[in-house]
């Protein structure tokens, strides 16, 4: 295969990528040309907030073609377009054949939550010391266990749920996973003995993933949209982001049973005070864990 690599300004990236697709590129990928430099600008806002900008100031656009002849033909036609005056060819190079499936799989290896609790992709054998295992492959919904926010929630579940069969269920009680993504936290709670679990999300792909992942792990839970959360729960887990967590404060707290726990993640260390303030009318949030700049905040009812 042959790859064309091009540079273009923000106002040309849509036209350039559409034209490459129209010129039969097998794939077109777009990256921030200023990534990891002083000129890099963050693009992604939090859910419900407008993005700070709609595109990178400069994009590096790569297009794959089946052969050198096809790549050159596409380049000739591209260079004849008026808009291309603002763009630049960075290079054209052969791409070595790879086993892409194997390469992708190699990026996801078993994740240790505690020495006995592991998240393991289906193409790996669980490590010998793993006693509790969630089998999970990367999919459409967030939550593979690689992100620190997910890992801290799972570690909390493991600590709280740790015990023999007669005590684990009592420890976690009825569980609500609010913003379930792949369902990883709900499945983790089930693995640690919880039997009455609601997993909810605004994204239908997340609800679908949660159902499939729960089946694959042979655990029972109910997955649905947020209005499926009803009544109170001994454990309420929400790994979302600071802004929605602040908006959701009265709702999430209304679901925490007397004597129950609220566990919040998706919060940067620098956002601790604003979260404490947002939840102050209901409870006293404390920082119970931290990893790589992210914190876990919890409160008891
Ligand atoms: C960071 S992911 C967490 C996924 C998983 N629980 C984990 O810990 O890895 C956040 C999830 O929250 C969902 N979400 C965002 N805002 C939400 C809201 N207001 N109500 C319910 N779910 C929401 C997103 O769709 C996404 O699946």
UniProtKB/TrEMBL annotation:
Cellular localization per UniProt: Cytoplasm
Recorded catalytic activity of this chain's protein: L-lysyl-[protein] + 3 S-adenosyl-L-methionine = N(6),N(6),N(6)-trimethyl-L-lysyl-[protein] + 3 S-adenosyl-L-homocysteine + 3 H(+)
Principal subcellular localisation of the protein: cytoplasm
Stored Gene3D superfamilies: Vaccinia Virus protein VP39
Entry coiled-coil feature ranges: none
Protein residues bound to S-adenosyl-L-methionine: 150, 179, 201, 239
Alphabetically ordered keywords of this record: Cytoplasm, Methyltransferase, Ribonucleoprotein, Ribosomal protein, S-adenosyl-L-methionine, Transferase
The UniProt record lists the keyword Cytoplasm: yes
EC number(s) on file: 2.1.1.-
A Pfam family recorded for this sequence: PrmA
A GO MF term: protein-lysine N-methyltransferase activity
Gene Ontology BP terms: methylation
CC per GO annotation: cytosol; ribosome
Broad EC category: transferase
Family indicated by similarity: Belongs to the methyltransferase superfamily. PrmA family.
PANTHER family from the UniProt entry: ELECTRON TRANSFER FLAVOPROTEIN BETA SUBUNIT LYSINE METHYLTRANSFERASE (PTHR43648:SF1)
General function of this protein: Methylates ribosomal protein L11.
Name of the protein in question: Ribosomal protein L11 methyltransferase
Lineage: Bacteria, Pseudomonadati, Pseudomonadota, Betaproteobacteria, Burkholderiales
Gene: prmA
């Amino acid at each position: 295969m042959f790859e064309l690599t091009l540079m273009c300004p923000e106002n040309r990236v849509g036209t350039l990528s559409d034209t490459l697709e129209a010129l039969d590129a097998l794939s077109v990928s777009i990256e921030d040309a200023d990534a990891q430099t002083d000129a890099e600008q963050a693009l992604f806002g939090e859910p419900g907030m407008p993005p700070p900008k709609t595109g990178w100031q400069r994009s590096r656009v790569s297009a794959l073609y089946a052969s050198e002849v096809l790549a050159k033909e596409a380049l000739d036609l591209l260079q004849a377009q008026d808009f291309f005056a603002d763009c630049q060819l960075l290079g054209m190079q052969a791409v070595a054949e790879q086993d892409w499936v194997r390469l992708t799989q190699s990026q996801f290896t078993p994740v240790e939550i505690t020495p006995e609790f592991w998240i393991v992709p289906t193409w790996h054998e669980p490590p010998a010391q793993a006693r509790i295992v969630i089998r999970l492959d990367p999919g459409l919904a967030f939550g593979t266990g690689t992100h620190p926010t997910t890992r801290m929630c799972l570690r909390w579940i493991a600590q709280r749920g740790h015990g023999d069969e007669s005590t684990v269920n009592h420890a976690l009680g009825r569980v609500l996973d609010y913003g379930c993504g792949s369902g990883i936290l709900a499945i983790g709670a089930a693995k640690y003995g919880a039997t009455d679990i609601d997993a909810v999300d605004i994204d239908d792909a997340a609800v679908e993933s949660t159902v499939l992942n729960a089946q694959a792990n042979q655990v029972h839970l109910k997955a649905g949209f947020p209005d499926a959360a009803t009544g109170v729960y001994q454990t309420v887990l929400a790994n979302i982001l600071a802004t929605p967590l602040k908006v959701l404060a009265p709702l999430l707290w209304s679901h925490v049973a007397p004597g129950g726990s609220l566990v919040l993640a998706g919060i940067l260390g620098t956002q601790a005070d604003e979260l404490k303030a947002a939840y102050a009318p209901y409870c006293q949030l404390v920082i119970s864990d931290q990893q790589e700049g992210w914190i876990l905040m919890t409160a008891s009812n």
